[in-house]
Amino acid sequence: MPFHKSITIKQDTILFLWKITESYDWFFENVKLKEKSVLRLETMKSESHRKGFLAVRMLLQNIGYSDFDLFYDEYGKPHLHDGRHISISHSNDFSAVVISNEILGLDIEQIKEKTLKIAPRFMETHHLENLEHEDKLKKATVIWGIKESIFKIKNEKGISFPEHIFDKPFDLKEKRAIGILKFNNKEEFFDAYFDQVENYIFVCLFEKRNE
Asked: How confident is the model at residue 58 (pLDDT cuts 50, 70, 90)?
C-alpha cells in the first residue's frame, strides 16, 4: 500500500503520508535520486531507515516534487528550492512530509509503552494524571511530538526537552495544543495540531504569531 493519504492541516499546509509495505529494492528501482542522496543512503545501516528515506522521496514524487527539489542546510534542516517550507518525519511503517507556506515542524511517532516509561525524563508527568492508560500513552506521545517539532524548528545547541520545552494543559479530544520554548531568556509559543493515524500520532507545529 503506497501513498496512504493526505490531510489538510490548515490553509496552504498539507500533510502527506506513505505507509511502507514495499521492499527496499522496489523503492530503489522507483525513486529518482541525486548522487548525494545515493551516497547518504549507502551510509544507513538500518533497512528501516533506508526505506523511510526512500519513502519520503516517493511522497515527493507523488506530489509534484522530487529528491532534486530537496536540499539540507548546515544544521540538517530540509528545504525546497521553490521556497515553500517542508518538514519530514519517519517512524517504522510510516513516512510523512508536510508542505506549507509557514515555518513548521513535523513529528510522527508510534504509540508504544516505551514512551510512557521514559515520560519522566522528558515531560512533567502531572499532565498524565487522571487519564486511562490508553490516553496516557497517547498524550505522552503527543507531548514528545510537540517537543521534537519545536526542536526541529529552532534546532539550537543546548535546548533540552525537559528543561526548556513545555506545553500548556490540553485535551486530547481537541487535537490542538500550545507548545512553549523557554531558552536564552526568551519565551516563544507554538501552535500544535495533532491526530492519530492507525497506531501512530503525528504532530504538526507552527510558530505562534501572537500570544
From this structure: very high
For residue range 65-99, what is the model confidence (pLDDT) as tens digits? Answer: 999 999 999 888 999 999 999 999 999 999 999 99
Count of other CB atoms within 10 angstroms of residue 111: 17
- Nearest 5°: phi and psi at 86? -135, 145
DSSP 8-state class, residue 78: E
What whole-number distance in Å separates Cα of residue 193 and Cα of residue 106?
Answer: 10
Task: Tell me the Cα Rg of the chain.
Answer: 17
Tell which CATH classification among 3.90.740.10, 3.40.50.920, 3.90.470.20, 3.40.630.10 matches the domain 107-207.
3.90.470.20
Could you tell me if 69 and 60 are in contact, meaning their C-beta atoms sit under 8 angstroms apart?
A: yes
